[in-house]
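Late entry, pyridoxal-5'-phosphate complex.
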Amino acid sequence: MGQGFDTRSVHVTMKRDEGVPTKVTPIHQTSAFTFKNLEDIENFYNGERDYLYTRVGNPNTDELGKAVANLEAAPTGIATSSGLSAIMVGILAIAKAGDHIIASEDLYGGTYELLANELTGFGIEVSFVSFEKDLETEIKKNTVLLYTESITNPLLRVEDLERVVQIANKHHLQTMVDNTFATPYLVQPYQLGVNLVVHSATKYLGGHSDITAGVLVGDEDLLTIARTKCVNLGANLSPFEAWLTVRGLKTLSVRMDRHVQNASKLAKALAKHAAVDKVYYPEFVAEKGNGAIVTIDITNQANIDTFFESLDWIKIVATLAGVETTVSYPIGTSHRNLPVESQQALGITKGLIRISVGIEDVDDIIRTIENALTIAKK
Ligand SMILES: *Cc1c(COP(=O)(O)O)cnc(C)c1O
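Prediction complete; structure with ligand written out below:
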């Protein structure tokens, strides 16, 4: 019997006892590694020893990639400088000029921009489509990849990953899923047959809003290509940030338990508030819970500026997933560059608020948000 998820997440540290038996992995904050002689250099290229230069590989970044692969039950993984660079090297491991990607239309704003504005410049064609509709009609001769998110941002649609994998397999396509909002604690897309799973480790994996990092996990053959892209495009993560992210991973289970409990209580409470038109909170994500983001729409019932000015200790940010409760304004930040028609079609309104529910006392969270809503009520 293998170890359980919680045990594995605590024991992510690789054993690196080079004479000093430290309990956790030391930070290998170095840009390069030394060689005894020319034969030793050859040994690196033969695969008989590790590490040459940190852009090419470093013990701390390796530790993070492997730790997340372990939690996703995937064969291997790499850590990168950001979630977006992990998405970039993952896509470039699959698609080249002339290929076509089908991407979900309700993606994280930064991913939308990467696909729409950058990858198209490399000659990669992208269609943004509703993954709830008939995906198969969108498949072309040059389609190579279906790209989506396990829980979408900011409206928290839960993707039917089994269906996506089934369609991909039928048409010999690859699949790639951004699992940032769910984390491997709730959903493990690789286990469902997804080829590449990507994380903005900036969010729950790190968990403390003090690093920017990404992780890509999946099959050895795709990861070998992605690793080369990461090296050649300079998308490596710094050793210190990898080390901090590994520290965050060790408490992923306990943080997620509290996050999801608090979020489900907040979602229930807000559904009853007179200033709220609509609460978006997913159902049936996993037995352990339904995620820790609650999105509300107050367009018709309350004044959005007053709400954001009445939040007391809750901070306004353009991110999510730290231990503190924070709120963000999708139309003003992450989704501001989405075409207006797409914003409207998706429901990203001027009254939409994304709440990243923290691990504080839930009564304090509920009281503070309810109070801001009451003040903002028209
Ligand atoms: C934040 C985020 C990203 C981008 O990650 P960075 O670490 O900011 O580059 C990608 N996908 C989702 C779902 C995110 O929330």
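The mean pLDDT is 95. Will revisit in the morning.
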